[in-house]
Specification:
Order of helices and strands of chain A: HHHHEHEHEHEEHEHEHEHEEHEE
Number of domains of chain A: 3
Protein name (chains A, B): Transcriptional regulator, LacI family
CATH superfamily of the largest domain in chain A: Response regulator
Keywords (chains A, B): DNA-binding, Transcription, Transcription regulation
Distance between the termini of chain A: 79 Å
Number of strands of chain A: 12
CATH class of the largest domain in chain A: Alpha Beta
GO molecular function, one term (chains A, B): DNA-binding transcription factor activity
CATH topology of the largest domain in chain A: Rossmann fold
CATH architecture of the largest domain in chain A: 3-Layer(aba) Sandwich
Largest interface: A-B, 50 and 50 residues
InterPro entries (chains A, B): HTH_LacI, LacI/GalR-like_sensor, Lambda_DNA-bd_dom_sf, Peripla_BP_I
Pfam families (chains A, B): LacI (PF00356), Peripla_BP_3 (PF13377)
Strand order of the largest sheet of chain A: 2-1-3-4-5-11
Oligomer: homodimer
DNA sequence: TTGTATGCGTTATCAC
DNA sequence: GTGATAACGCATACAA
């Protein structure tokens, strides 16, 4: 039914092997090259990537596992990964595990059954034994965003602690002392690092780290909303608020609007990754921007490099820097 | 390297064919079945899905093309699709085309080169000639959400006009006459249908359809924000606002909060798909909820059915109903 | 029921 | 350089 390399050979009057060699970039006698090209044109031949995979043990697919399809931070990176790997004709099989460790491991097995040539993993919440099976089969792994500290492989991370430090420092330079943080879940490496930066900044300026200024929003919009509400319901109110991811920032802003708190007059705020509304809402928020495109590009190129068998510099750990986009939500107090 | 069916056969002391048949659910003599199962266990054998695909002409993958990885409405459906098809051991290759028709067609070709067994398409913006190639190759197509009216295939749609009608009717029953709509791009079938319902409702109650109450937000948060701003900047202000998707609703709410407009005292509002904040923001919004899980499930089962060669009822067009979740954002005026 | 042999579309290893 | 041929891992028609 589909036209094969054999059909092309017949049409071109050469052998099957010659066509195969042509397709794989070997040199042919000029005359044959033209005949083969002509035949391919006329027959509309396309290589069968599956058959190719059978021989070469390559599926030309890369498994990408993220927490949740609906997480815009992850999917932004995935967009860049896809753009990068498709250039070399790889496609990605994207899976989410909805925060369920059980499901995550099931997906990792699933991907292995499909002979993915590489794995890009957004998670720190996985048993190393499964990863070892990948290693054993020689399938390269790149970890993105969330680190698994004990696990030795290529990683594309963000300088979370540094980002937090600079955010909090900015508040301190503006004379704030009641600096609250809405952080992600404590078992997340990212959360831990972001908290670490918060703590280090306070300590660097001899300010106390007080539990009343620390709340957890589970990296969700609802969580951020509720945490912000709690902060402003009591008598003891922070003057500065640092929110450590996009969804919680969204939720916190909703809460603040609803409570009719003036930003930055009554509250200074620094958020994270304010994708869609960046330049639109008033007052425009000062946010920490993560280089999602770059992360995806690096992760994509890294996995391609390893798939090709190039293990120079292994393990590469890229720690990318964030950028603070200064807008109008931070005010100096007296 | 990997353990093959041949290894299993040798270990079990049966022929390769016997093992193959076992794997494909044929009956074996009890004694042989046990031997084969034992061998599979001991060797940790796993079928090579790629080799299998070469024979059966099945890739066990389904191509899913959405507009944008970061669109939560689409990804919610995709989550359900994936959950459905993975039960039958299919995986999905998810592509986005970022609103670029050129890129969309490129992706469709890409997926065809990978021998996807089926295609699930979220778009109305594609040349039929490409689809015809799928048809010709016998690859089933299911269209989700956006309809391509001239194109005859299985579809999973939403009763957009009906949803709009009931939303606007609700406003009318509450004595509103200045009913504004923030709609998506006019070239989208979904937009057209949602506008149609808006129009029909007004006409049904002998109210005029006025262009001053119609704005376009391009289905984006920023678009919704800007459109809402425009509505409330002039002297001529609507008393009711209907926003036709999630992102625009988010943006509109931001604008409304920022302008300090009281809901529902000064403005009644009905939005769409208020995923994350549904029960959280105050006043809680009355929204139209689309059955994303169900859409994904139906689309997944439909494509599986067609892949199996079951073309009963073709073409099936499922038009699902939305649900209005009534909360506190609509108020009757005198 | 089972074993044998052939083929799926491609790559790779031979001689030539 | 090129052509013939044997794999890759599996499914299946056929004979037994």
């Amino acid at each position: 039914m589909a036209v094969t390399i054999r059909d092309v050979a017949k049409r071109a009057g050469v052998s099957l092997g010659t066509v195969s060699r042509y397709l794989n970039g070997y040199r042919l006698r000029e005359e044959n090259r033209l005949k083969v090209e002509k035949a391919i044109q006329e027959l509309g031949f396309k290589q069968n990537i599956i058959a190719k995979g059978l021989k070469s043990n390559r599926s030309m697919t890369i498994g990408v596992v993220i927490d949740d399809f609906t997480n815009i931070f992850c999917t932004s990176i995935v967009t860049a990964i896809e753009r990068t790997v498709e250039k070399e004709n790889y496609s990605i099989i994207l899976c989410d595990y909805e925060g369920d460790t059980e499901k995550l491991e099931q997906k990792l097995n699933f991907l292995r059954d499909r002979f993915v040539d590489g794995l890009i993993l957004f998670s720190n919440n996985v048993r190393l034994s499964i990863m070892d099976e990948y290693i054993r089969d020689g399938i390269p792994i790149v970890i993105v965003n969330e680190d698994i500290p004990g696990f030795n492989t290529d990683k594309v991370l963000v300088d979370n602690a540094g980002a937090s430090f600079r955010a909090v420092e900015r508040f301190i330079h503006s004379n704030h002392t009641k600096i609250a943080i809405i952080n992600g879940p404590p078992n997340s490496w990212v959360s831990q690092q972001r908290f670490e930066g918060y703590k280090q900044a306070l300590e660097a300026y001899n300010l106390p780290v007080e539990s009343r200024w620390i709340k957890y929003g589970n990296f969700t919009t609802v969580g951020g909303y509720l945490a912000a509400k709690e902060f402003f319901e009591g008598a003891d109110i922070p003057t500065a608020l640092y929110v450590t991811n996009y969804y919680m920032t969204l939720g916190a802003v909703m809460a603040i609007h609803e409570l009719n708190i003036k930003v930055p007059q009554e509250l200074s705020i620094i958020g994270f990754d304010y994708f869609e509304l960046s330049d639109v809402i008033k007052p425009s928020l000062t946010v920490i921007e993560q280089p999602t495109s770059k992360m995806g590009e690096i992760a994509g190129n890294l996995i391609l490099k390893r798939i090709k068998g190039d293990y120079t510099g292994y393990p590469e750990v890229h720690t990318l820097h964030t950028r603070m986009i200064v807008r109008d939500s931070v005010r100096a107090i007296s």
